[in-house]
C-alpha cells in the first residue's frame, strides 16, 4: 500500500501490529530475565550467561520503539481532540492503572524478591503493611524502594512525556507543524537512519556513565534521552505527510545495520578487559555507545518498514489484541514472578520451564483480560474505556 497518498482518516494499522508484537516480546524478554545473570526480582537456579546474547538482541530498541509509537499516537490524537481534552483522557487512562498497579498488581514481585533474596518470612499481609508505609529496611547491594512501580515505569514515563508533548504543542501552536515539515525534509534515505541515531548517540555518550538507568524519573537522564527522544520524534513524523513509505524503502538496510550492531554489542559485552589499558577502554566506550544507539534506532526503522509492507491491514485479531495488550502488559511480569517462584521447587529443566512460563503467562494474562473487559468497575483500572466502542479510524491507539 502506498502511504504517500493516503488520506488523514486512514488508520495506521501497521503501528497497531508493531505495538502488539512489541508487547508480546516483553513477555518473552521478562521470562528470559529469570534465566540470565543480570539482576532481577527472582532468579532461576539454572541462570547463566548463555541466553544473554539473545536478550541483547532486543534490549536496545524494544522500549524505544514503543515510545516512538506512543509519540505518533499522541501527536495524532492531540490534533484530533485538542490539548486539554486529550491530556485529561490520557491522565485517566494512564494514572489509574499506574496507581492500581503499584498497590495491587506489582507488590507480589517485591514480596517474592525479598523472600528469595533476603529470606523474608513475615507473610504477604505483613509485607504489604511495610510496603504501603514505604519501608526502607529490605537491603542487599542497595535497599528496595517501596512502594515501587517496577515494570510499570513505562506507564509513568509515557504519562510524563505525554504531558510534556501537550505543553509543547500548546506553547508552539502552528510552529509544531513547521518544525515537523523541516524535519521531514531531512529524514529521507540514509539520513532517516543516521541522523536520529547520531542524536541518540550523542545523548548516550554524554549521559550513560553519569546517569545509569534507575526508572525513578529523578537522575534517570540517559534513560529519559533514549525514551523521550524517540517519543518526540514519533510525535513530529506523525505530522509529516507520506512519511511512512520511507522506513519501508530502507527496511533491509536498517535490519542489516541493526544485526551488525548487535554482533558488535555482544562482542563488547563478552570481552575480558583484564589486560586492556584505561586509555583503550576510554576510546572504545563512546564508540560502543554509538553502536548501541545506532542499533536502537535502525531496529525501530526496520520494524516500522517491514510492518508498513506486510502488516498494514485490519482484522478481528488486531481489534481484539489492540484492546487486550495493555491489560496483558500490566499483568505479565507479576505472573512471571509468581509462576517462576511457584515452579522452582519442581526443578524443571530451564528450556521446558521457560516455554511453560511463556505459555502460562500469556494464557493467564488473556484469561484475566477476558474477566476485566466484562466488569465495568475493573475496566478503567486496566486502562480500558468504560464501554467498548468501535475504534477510531484516524490513528493507532496510543501505547497506553
From TrEMBL:
Q: Which InterPro entries match?
A: Acyl_transf_3_dom (IPR002656), Glucan_succinyl_AcylTrfase (IPR050623)
Query: One GO molecular function term?
Result: acyltransferase activity
Q: Where is the Acyltransferase domain?
A: 13-367
Mark the transmembrane ranges: 20-41, 61-79, 91-112, 154-174, 186-207, 227-245, 252-271, 291-308, 320-342, 354-372
Pfam families assigned to the protein according to its UniProt record, in alphabetical order: Acyl_transf_3
- Superkingdom in the source lineage: Bacteria
What UniProt keywords apply to this chain's record, in alphabetical order? Acyltransferase, Membrane, Transferase, Transmembrane, Transmembrane helix
| Full protein name | Acyltransferase family protein
Upper classification of the source organism reads:
Bacteria, Pseudomonadati, Pseudomonadota, Betaproteobacteria, Burkholderiales
Amino acid at each position: 500500500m502506498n502511504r504517500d497518498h493516503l488520506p488523514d482518516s486512514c488508520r495506521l494499522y501497521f503501528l497497531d501490529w508493531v505495538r502488539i508484537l512489541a508487547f508480546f516480546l516483553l513477555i518473552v524478554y521478562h521470562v528470559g530475565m529469570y534465566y540470565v545473570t543480570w539482576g532481577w526480582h527472582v532468579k532461576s537456579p539454572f541462570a547463566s550467561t548463555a541466553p544473554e546474547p539473545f536478550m541483547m538482541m532486543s534490549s536496545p530498541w524494544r522500549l524505544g520503539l514503543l515510545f516512538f509509537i506512543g509519540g505518533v499516537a499522541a501527536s495524532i490524537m492531540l490534533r484530533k481532540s485538542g490539548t486539554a481534552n486529550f491530556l485529561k483522557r490520557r491522565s485517566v487512562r494512564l494514572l489509574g492503572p499506574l496507581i492500581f498497579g503499584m498497590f495491587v498488581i506489582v507488590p507480589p514481585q517485591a514480596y517474592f524478591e525479598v523472600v528469595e533474596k533476603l529470606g523474608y518470612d513475615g507473610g504477604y499481609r505483613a509485607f504489604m503493611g511495610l510496603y504501603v508505609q514505604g519501608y526502607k529496611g529490605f537491603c542487599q547491594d542497595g535497599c528496595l524502594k517501596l512502594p515501587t512501580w517496577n515494570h510499570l515505569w513505562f506507564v509513568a514515563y509515557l504519562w510524563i512525556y505525554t504531558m510534556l508533548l501537550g505543553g509543547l504543542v500548546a506553547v508552539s501552536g502552528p510552529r509544531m507543524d513547521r518544525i515537523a515539515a523541516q524535519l521531514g525534509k531531512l529524514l529521507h534515505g540514509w539520513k532517516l537512519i543516521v541522523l536520529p541515531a547520531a542524536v541518540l548517540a550523542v545523548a548516550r555518550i554524554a549521559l550513560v556513565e553519569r546517569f545509569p538507568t534507575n526508572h525513578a524519573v529523578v537522575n534517570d537522564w540517559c534513560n529519559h534521552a533514549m525514551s523521550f527522544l524517540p517519543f518526540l520524534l514519533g510525535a513530529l513524523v506523525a505530522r509529516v505527510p507520506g512519511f511512512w513509505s520511507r522506513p519501508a524503502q530502507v527496511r533491509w538496510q536498517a535490519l542489516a545495520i541493526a544485526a551488525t550492531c548487535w554482533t558488535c554489542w555482544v562482542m563488547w559485552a563478552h570481552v575480558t578487559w583484564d589486560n586492556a589499558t584505561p586509555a583503550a577502554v576510554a576510546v572504545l566506550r563512546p564508540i560502543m555507545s554509538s553502536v548501541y544507539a545506532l542499533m536502537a534506532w535502525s531496529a525501530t526503522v526496520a520494524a516500522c518498514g517491514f510492518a508498513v509492507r506486510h502488516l498494514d491491514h485490519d482484522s478481528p485479531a488486531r481489534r481484539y489484541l489492540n484492546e487486550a495488550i495493555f491489560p496483558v502488559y500490566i499483568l505479565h511480569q507479576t505472573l512471571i514472578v509468581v509462576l517462576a517462584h511457584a515452579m522452582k521447587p519442581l526443578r524443571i529443566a530451564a528450556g521446558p520451564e521457560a516455554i511453560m512460563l511463556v505459555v502460562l503467562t500469556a494464557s493467564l494474562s488473556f484469561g484475566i483480560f477476558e474477566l476485566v473487559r466484562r466488569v465495568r468497575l475493573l475496566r478503567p483500572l486496566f486502562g480500558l474505556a468504560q464501554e467498548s466502542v468501535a475504534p477510531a479510524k484516524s490513528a493507532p491507539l496510543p501505547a497506553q
